[in-house]
Every structure is written in structure tokens, then in C-alpha cells.
Design goal:
Length: 114
């Protein structure tokens, strides 16, 4: 069951190492990279109950996102909004400026969304 998988992941040292690698390399991610990482972590949390994003990692991810949001395409924007809707830790660390940047990116890319 998904709950059992979530428990197994939470207890697996390799998963902890993966999250540590995200922490270490987060600032190097490009727009697509930060989008994919946030989405992947959101899926793990929403579908499997794995809380992989603590406040410290959330701040790192949001900071990287803030720096990269201007280069995001419509697909990145849609994915990031979906991820933030599932990751309370990340969404709650976003400042008004970050949300304004998301809104601006959504508005900028809206004509190309389908």
C-alpha cells in the first residue's frame, strides 16, 4: 500500500541521503530542476505520506525558486503551483514577493498554457 511504501522510504538511509543531496545542490538547480524537485517531493508527501521537506529545506527550495522563476515556462509554472499546493512547508515559507513572482510568471506564461 502507499502508506507502507511511505514508511519504508522514511526509514531508508538512501532516501535520507537523497534529501541531503537535494540540500547540498539545491542552489545549483535551474528553473526546470527546482520545478522537478519540488514536484517530486510534493508527490512523495501527498501520495505516500513521506515528509521530506522540513522548514530548512523549504527555505532553500523557495530561495532557489525565487531566483529562477523569471526563466520558467508555462509548464514549469503549472507544475510549481501544483507542487506548492501539496507542500505546506514550502508554501508557508514563501514571502509575498515570492507569491507575486509566481503570479507574474503565471500571467506572463498564460497565453501559452493549454
Amino acid at each position: 500500500s502507499p502508506a507502507q511504501v511511505g514508511v519504508m522510504l522514511s526509514e531508508d538511509g538512501r532516501f535520507c541521503r537523497l534529501i541531503e543531496l537535494v540540500r547540498v545542490h539545491c542552489s545549483k538547480l535551474d528553473a526546470k530542476g527546482v520545478t522537478n524537485v519540488l514536484n517530486g517531493l510534493a508527490v512523495l508527501q501527498a501520495k505516500l505520506g513521506v515528509k521530506a521537506v522540513d522548514e530548512k529545506l523549504a527555505i532553500q527550495l523557495v530561495t532557489t525558486f525565487d531566483r529562477k522563476v523569471g526563466g520558467m515556462n508555462a509548464q514549469n509554472v503549472a507544475i510549481i503551483l501544483n507542487a506548492l499546493s501539496k507542500l505546506d512547508a514550502a508554501a508557508s515559507t514563501m514571502l509575498a514577493v515570492g507569491w507575486d513572482a509566481v503570479a507574474g510568471a503565471a500571467q506572463r506564461t498564460a497565453p501559452t498554457m493549454n
